[in-house]
Amino acid sequence: MAVKTLTINDRLVSARESETILEAARDAGIHIPTLCHLEGLSDVGACRLCLVEIAGSHKLQPACVTKVAEGMEVKTDSEKLQKYRRMIIEMLFAEGNHVCSVCVANGNCELQDLAVEMGMDSVHLNYQFPQRTVDLSHDRFGIDHNRCVLCTRCVRVCDEIEGAHTWDVAGRGHNAHVITDLNQPWGTADSCTSCGKCMMACPTGAIFAQGTTVSEMTKERDKLEFINTARKNQEWIL
Amino acid sequence: MNKLKLATVWLGGCSGCHMSFLDLDEWLIDLATQVELVYSPIADIKEYPEGVDIVLVEGAVANEDNLELIKKVRDRSKILISFGDCAVTGNVTALRNPFGDPEPFLQRSYLEAADIQNQIPHEPGIVPALLEQVKPVHDVVEVDVYLPGCPSNANHIRAALEMLLMGEVPHLSGKLIRFG
Ligand code: SF4
Ligand code: SF4
Ligand code: SF4
Ligand code: FES
């Protein structure tokens, strides 16, 4: 297994050649903010929050899908990147309808945490106030599209871990949204096994358990982690 | 030394942020020794005065009265604090925005959902007309300090005010700026 040596924020770091910058940074205890990345799922580079600077390239690269290379010089926390990340978070808040005070995930939301991390005390883009829907047709879960940030974690966890592939993304640009089966009410989507993995994976209050109210929705990410570890170590294969 | 002139203003909000301010309990007595309260929904003063040093503005800009008052407040105050999520983001007050025109909401609230005296309030000059869209305060006037939270936590209000009393304009971070 080839090992690559690179610097991250002027620190010498070694990583396996198959690793991404994000993995190498995390192994070295260097924090890079992420949103669409979820341990155990494939990476899609959708949210751009993990953008880093690489010496010799004037394009910013998403750390979650960029592989390490020998001699690479990476910066994860320049002023430019901080500005950029705050802008991304502001865009996410402005594009949806995030009313944290009445949200099931208030206090347990990755988007809300990221806003705090980026120092976002207010949003300076125009709020779009889009008209979006809520689907409560499923017996156990609901989805409020007003709070969806299109990270596709639900899509990937359902496909890659549960193997059901109930979720997909439909539409483009402002009209993009997640759908269940053939764009039908979730409660009528036959492929859904009601396993709840999408709810655990969803970083925001978009997917929630029926009957939860403000601030009650905690996402059990440790359950996903447990399943991932067991799969990786083949703990269930006797 | 002249006492700092403090004002608090109530626009389109539920008054919860003011309640949270009152939650500062005995610290309010300390505060009273350092500031003069020159305008507030808890004081009987009709006109927003000139020369205000610090103003806490609760609520979003939701109707024509709010719009007129916030402009006056900005003109007459040095440090304007956008106080609570309604002021900072529109929050609950702005829940009607995605639907556009406020008319369907008035109908729903005052006609369909009312049990008695079903009528939409209409008293020109007394009941202010709703704006087409509810706006956060900084969409209308310049804001100096953002103090989010629904309501803003009393200790956060105190932290911000203490900095201002020492002559600093606070730049808040961490849990002091968490929405919700
Ligand atoms: S999903 Fe997160 S950011 Fe959006 S309203 Fe809920 S708590 Fe706030
Ligand atoms: S529903 Fe949740 S997990 Fe799915 S795309 Fe939206 S925010 Fe991401
Ligand atoms: S931010 Fe919350 S507590 Fe403050 S006025 Fe608005 S709804 Fe009320
Ligand atoms: S975490 Fe890398 S692009 Fe979203």
UniProtKB/TrEMBL annotation, chain A:
Q: Could you tell me which residue ranges the 4Fe-4S His(Cys)3-ligated-type domain spans?
A: 80-119
Question: Pfam families of this UniProt entry?
Answer: Fer2_4 (PF13510), Fer4_Nqo3 (PF22117), NADH-G_4Fe-4S_3 (PF10588)
The main location is membrane
2Fe-2S ferredoxin-type domain location is 2-80
> Which GO molecular function annotations are given, in alphabetical order?
2 iron, 2 sulfur cluster binding; 4 iron, 4 sulfur cluster binding; metal ion binding; oxidoreductase activity
Subcellular localization(s) per the UniProt record: Membrane
What keywords would UniProt list here?
2Fe-2S, 4Fe-4S, Iron, Iron-sulfur, Membrane, Metal-binding, NAD, Translocase
What cofactors are annotated for this protein? [2Fe-2S] cluster; [4Fe-4S] cluster
**Is Translocase found in the keyword set?**
yes
Question: What are the residue boundaries of the 4Fe-4S ferredoxin-type domain, all occurrences included?
Answer: 139-170, 183-212
Q: InterPro entries of this UniProt entry? A: 2Fe-2S_ferredoxin-like_sf, 2Fe-2S_ferredoxin-type, 4Fe4S_Fe-S-bd, 4Fe4S_Fe_S_CS, NAD-red_Hydgase_HoxS_gsu, NADH_UbQ_OxRdtase_ferredoxin, NADH_UbQ_OxRdtase_Gsu_4Fe4S-bd, PSI_iron-sulfur_center
Q: Is Membrane set as a keyword in this record?
A: yes
For this record, the Gene Ontology CC terms, alphabetical, are: membrane
Q: Which family does it belong to?
A: Belongs to the complex I 75 kDa subunit family.
Q: Which PANTHER family match?
A: HYDROGENASE SUBUNIT, PHOTOSYSTEM I IRON-SULFUR CENTER-RELATED
Protein name, entry field: Bidirectional hydrogenase complex protein HoxU
Q: Which organism is it from?
A: Waterburya agarophytonicola KI4
The taxonomy runs: Bacteria, Bacillati, Cyanobacteriota, Cyanophyceae, Pleurocapsales
Automatic annotation (TrEMBL), chain B:
Task: Tell me one GO molecular function of this protein.
Answer: oxidoreductase activity
Q: Which InterPro entries match?
A: Hydrogenase_assoc-protein, NADH_UbQ_OxRdtase-like_20kDa, NiFe_Hase_small_N_sf
| Protein keywords | Oxidoreductase
| Domain called NADH:ubiquinone oxidoreductase-like 20kDa subunit: residue spans | 14-163
Which SUPFAM superfamilies would you find in this protein's record? Answer: HydA/Nqo6-like
Gene3D superfamilies found in the cross-reference section: NADH:ubiquinone oxidoreductase-like, 20kDa subunit (3.40.50.700)
Its recorded name reads Oxidoreductase
Q: What is the lineage of its organism?
A: Bacteria, Bacillati, Cyanobacteriota, Cyanophyceae, Pleurocapsales
